[in-house]
Amino acid sequence: MERVDGRRPEQLRSVKITKDYIKFAEGSVLIEMGETKVICTATVEEKVPPFLKGQNKGWVTAEYAMLPRATQIRTQREAVKGKISGRTNEIQRLIGRALRAVVDLESLGERTIFIDCDVIQADGGTRTASITGAFVAMVLAMHKLVKAGLLERIPVRAWLAAVSVGKVADSLLLDLCYEEDSQAIVDMNVIMTDKNEFVEIQGTAEGYPFTREELDSLLDLAKTGILQLIDIQQLVLGEEYAF
Amino acid sequence: MERVDGRRPEQLRSVKITKDYIKFAEGSVLIEMGETKVICTATVEEKVPPFLKGQNKGWVTAEYAMLPRATQIRTQREAVKGKISGRTNEIQRLIGRALRAVVDLESLGERTIFIDCDVIQADGGTRTASITGAFVAMVLAMHKLVKAGLLERIPVRAWLAAVSVGKVADSLLLDLCYEEDSQAIVDMNVIMTDKNEFVEIQGTAEGYPFTREELDSLLDLAKTGILQLIDIQQLVLGEEYAF
Amino acid sequence: MERVDGRRPEQLRSVKITKDYIKFAEGSVLIEMGETKVICTATVEEKVPPFLKGQNKGWVTAEYAMLPRATQIRTQREAVKGKISGRTNEIQRLIGRALRAVVDLESLGERTIFIDCDVIQADGGTRTASITGAFVAMVLAMHKLVKAGLLERIPVRAWLAAVSVGKVADSLLLDLCYEEDSQAIVDMNVIMTDKNEFVEIQGTAEGYPFTREELDSLLDLAKTGILQLIDIQQLVLGEEYAF
Amino acid sequence: MERVDGRRPEQLRSVKITKDYIKFAEGSVLIEMGETKVICTATVEEKVPPFLKGQNKGWVTAEYAMLPRATQIRTQREAVKGKISGRTNEIQRLIGRALRAVVDLESLGERTIFIDCDVIQADGGTRTASITGAFVAMVLAMHKLVKAGLLERIPVRAWLAAVSVGKVADSLLLDLCYEEDSQAIVDMNVIMTDKNEFVEIQGTAEGYPFTREELDSLLDLAKTGILQLIDIQQLVLGEEYAF
Amino acid sequence: MERVDGRRPEQLRSVKITKDYIKFAEGSVLIEMGETKVICTATVEEKVPPFLKGQNKGWVTAEYAMLPRATQIRTQREAVKGKISGRTNEIQRLIGRALRAVVDLESLGERTIFIDCDVIQADGGTRTASITGAFVAMVLAMHKLVKAGLLERIPVRAWLAAVSVGKVADSLLLDLCYEEDSQAIVDMNVIMTDKNEFVEIQGTAEGYPFTREELDSLLDLAKTGILQLIDIQQLVLGEEYAF
Amino acid sequence: MERVDGRRPEQLRSVKITKDYIKFAEGSVLIEMGETKVICTATVEEKVPPFLKGQNKGWVTAEYAMLPRATQIRTQREAVKGKISGRTNEIQRLIGRALRAVVDLESLGERTIFIDCDVIQADGGTRTASITGAFVAMVLAMHKLVKAGLLERIPVRAWLAAVSVGKVADSLLLDLCYEEDSQAIVDMNVIMTDKNEFVEIQGTAEGYPFTREELDSLLDLAKTGILQLIDIQQLVLGEEYAF
Fold first, then answer.
1. Which residue of A has its CA nearest to F120?
2. Which residue among E86, E201, E215 sits closest to F93, beta carbon to beta carbon?
């Protein structure tokens, strides 16, 4: 099966990560995966949420949003509706949880890294692009803390990236664009480290259940995509950002 | 390792499903898994959401809540806070999505099955108990439609149940109670059919990533639990409810 | 006139109070009056609202809600609407006010008894059943404080119960079920102590005003019902809970 | 006991009702009871709420609010808090219910009388003053409908007024001002017609229950106040407004 | 062109300012400009907003609202909608900003003057009437602080009033009533001091842009109106309130 | 006085307008004025708000927001606070009003141009940059309607741009950056057409009133800036977009 944009089943879209995209943020990137574009910023706050006070640990949390015309049809602003949708909530909880899984919160000290992922153009895979970009923005912000003498080293235990995989008709595909995603009968988001370990797996049958064999093949596909994304992250950050 | 309540690692808590628990609902159960107790009701509405109008298809949707004193420490009502939490949103979206994966929405016709899962006592695994109970409540409500001549048969393609598995210290455990859940370093909810197919997998590393081998073992453990739960569902419903 | 469920005009529905119904709450009951079923819990909090700080007095407050399928037609959740209805507000203010009228707040000390009344099945008289049940849950929670040595005695001045009375067609009836309530032309809720004293009277003409003589007869009817309810409360609690 | 403002126990405060106080409303009054001042307006809307559509009946409903500096200490606006308080809800439901009890909704036809009671100065008894004033504003608006040929006669079955009574220390008092109200141990609002019939009785024990004898005396006291208020209403409206 | 109410183009409506209109407020007026009537109160609070703490400066802030039947067609309450409209927000920010421009916040000390402007009848120019009235209410409240020995003198640098001007058809008009305002093609609100200085100019083309010459003429017209309003303010306050 | 970024008093910051910046919107630009960067999109909706239905007229409306890290200190999302701030409301009302002043709404037909201005980096002058950019995005969207044969010509009567001017210390400055804006004692936003006509003037004294002479000089300064901005708009759009 030919994919809608001519890619091979196991091929990522073209990926571009522009670092220091927003002047005022401690860390920031513009990540582009095909036509999906997300601004990720990392803000350092010298305090932690109430439930962590006095525990000598830090925190990483995230918020996610889309500009109204990121989408083909204009989406109403959540600020206008007066509340965050269920979908937004799920995504921002996922981003924060994934990043925390690779951060050494004790070494971070009593401070919070506040991640903002704002989708300015949406063509599928916005949550996985957000995680891949947010990881870089977070490392950039942590590096500033190191340079300022506030941290000894970047308190991260592994590189982290995310990608979607899915079953469309009879094909298993890597990195679904919007058109593919809307036809998928299995939809899976996988978040992994550079050590081939899982941080989160979310696999959903859209109408039809899937077998253990399909699950295994999708996880293999995700792994190849994630290793490529981590290569790009390392290239963008350069050797200075080792951990 | 001895579990806190003396169970073996691969042992479910005692399960009890009481059908027709609420007089006015078209379908209802009280499901008890150990100390976790959830009232699940199914309401039939002879209309569908706007996005489905005129498509000759039905819909299944769900809401989830906890009574304030379901928990050890009283939890503030979401109605008082004026908004649904991110956690609640995630859970109710999950319940609806899982049930829809085994329902033949075309055969259901232009009507909605509205599921309510209200936790009256919470000791871990409330979302998986909700799904296992909600499936039974939904089938009870559909059976009423069959008896009333509105449906030819119960429009369900497979039996469905859900269970949690996780890694606590070095042990892989089935059906975590609250105390185990709060110490787990891997936490996974698995929803499967009686045909050994997956409807949803949500695996999360709480602080430490997990390997492919651990994933495989956890999925095996989940499968044994789900088959037992489906046996209980079938016993409760009896032969009249075949599909 | 024969009542819809065959009762005599001055007859209560069958009443059942199950104590310690919810494991985690300091005090709890399930109260059933005919088909009306309410879970009442009492939570002890070792603080008082801001307006009482430093006054050496305690507080009793209440919240009330209904599960969506407590009713014949599914009711939308207030958490989904994002606000508490006027009816809910009136009822929970009434429950709190009634309980405070018989509690010695000075003896309670600087702590709050937080009452939750959650209707799981509604067939009329939910607010009066809530008060009758909440009183028992509150006493159970206070008794725990006595056993823990935090209070010398249960700081309650009188037994308290509530019942509805009303005029349906030409009959004055005790303890209206939903069908009677919806046809009543006078509707009255009466809250009294075991000493024949009033704590609250709320009488409303639904369309047609009522006379002083009707008022007097309805109050007599309420009194007989309340004394029976207090007998049941005393039986459930047993002699250990004297005050 | 001398009352704080020198009145006798059974004496109303000075009452003044100014009709047509707001130019644009179909009916309006400024009612002053001592220092309590309320603007009551009645708006005619040529439609009914959804639950009444097609039933050839009208509706009367009410909203109540206070200006922030109606009170001694500035009160935060409910619009700023983003929600209506429980107290406001109770009061506006009471006003609407009381007026409906004397209106012939069938004769009113499919239209709504929308009452607004806005307290500009609050010195106790704002809900009873609102009802007494709202009745006059409603009749003024109905009279306009009669003059416009839309109604044959004012569709009201009885005159209606409201007053508070209460027990302060050992005295039973009529028409409590704020200072008295805040010390009352029994607080009762009574709404009656000119035919000595009750439309609503709300009696509350503030801390201490009250006896049947006290109830009887308070109702007698309320009756004398209400008859005086109805005299004033009749004087203000004049003979043209007979019904 | 004859104006709808017979005024000359450069003529104000009849203006009346009644001081001490609300008993409980530290400062209050009822200001009437033609049929527009606004209750303005000033409340003194002995604290400042968080962003000013510890700076030895005071603050002046304002809220604005309309009674539902201030307008010809009933307006829904913002408390019922659950949020403040954009228009209300703009007006209350404007009132606060304008008053602060003539107040010596350092001399005021760490206290806040809280202004409430509640329109009870609206016939155009409610925001400018609010400012003109609020200035007087504020001075009255400050004068109480002087009399109480809390301030040495009224901390105001200039008299302040506001008026609307506009272009209706071909005429430039002072102090537009509602009917004129709704037809205006240029609409301008001007706030000035007694020293002929501007505090705020807001000029808006309603559909058609305006020229520099028109701007100049409108500002001249506004100036004559404002000087008359300040004369009235001085007359109402009397010599005691000099600053 | 040297300006903080070395500009002359009457010098604009460097301006860049990138058209078709967002793929899915009917019209879009990224406008950069110095470090201030705003994404402006125009969405065409084939319907009008209820108050315009059936009048054969179109509408232009706008929403404005900032990404949380557009600012030096992270700003909380309005969607999280659950409401739009007063400042946001003022700005989006201003943008819509300004654009409508130069659009021929009759020629636009019964459709709405929905403008979104999202500030991704904020260094002062975000509302004026939004208007200058939104005008271009709107014309791009209208041009698509012309090309699609839905409009005969672009229904715009004049070019439109906006700029800020202000008084900082003793200097009158054009196009204030954030640091200048925060020190300004007079702050003015001016919106003009290419025909030297005003669409909106908003001048505010920040603490100290300003004179008629200062007003005149500021308006002259604004005019020179606006003419340069319109030149840039015309260059970006090219001759194809004449109207």
1. A22
2. E86
